[in-house]
Amino acid sequence: MRYCKVFIVLLVVVFFSCSKEKTTYNKLEGAWLMNSIMDQDSTLDFNEADTIQTWVFNICQNYEDSCSGYIQEYDGNINTFWHNLNSSGDQITIIDSQQTVLTSIDEDFNITAIDTIIVDTTIYDIIKLNAKELALRYTNSDNNIINITFDKVVD
């Protein structure tokens, strides 16, 4: 009987943790227009006409796998990424891979071009997420805390 109670408690905990993750993914899906970037020294505010980026999180078919998304830059360039949530739904990891060409010059001044893929992984704390607003926080490589806020793009 005691093992049965423990099993039921574990089942309830697993159910609610999966539910948080799925709920967060459902709220996150869609396009988000960046409206500010803040660090401890300054704040950059944007409006719809001059926004720097729009982040798009595609629908996720299987919540245990990474989901796709992309960032549309102000100049129209698109950078794709993969994202996944932790089990409690309060952190999102974004994995961005970009193909680039690195060059090297040897001692005889011969130039060699090498196709390389650079992978950047950033873990964001989800500070706020509702139907209209998204706020993320992360620590950059200089140990500065960066806050980014977004507004949901309404179709």
If you average the pLDDT, what whole number results? Answer: 79
Radius of gyration: 20 Å
In the CATH hierarchy, the architecture is Beta Barrel
Order of helices and strands: HEEEEEEEEE
Folded structure, characterized:
It is a single chain. The protein has 155 residues and is an alpha+beta fold. 17% of the residues lie in helices and 52% in strands. Strands 1-3-4-5-6-7-8-9 form an 8-stranded antiparallel β-barrel. The longest helix has 27 residues.
In short:
The chain has 1 helix and 9 strands, in the order αβββββββββ.
Give the arrangement of secondary structure elements:
Blueprint: H1 2-28, E1 30-38, E2 43-45, E3 53-57, E4 67-73, E5 78-85, E6 91-105, E7 111-129, E8 133-139, E9 145-152
Antiparallel strand pairs: 1-2, 1-3, 1-9, 3-4, 4-5, 5-6, 6-7, 7-8, 8-9
Provide the descriptors you would attach to this structure in a database record.
Lipocalin, alpha+beta, 52% strand, 1 helix, globular, 155 residues, eight-stranded antiparallel barrel
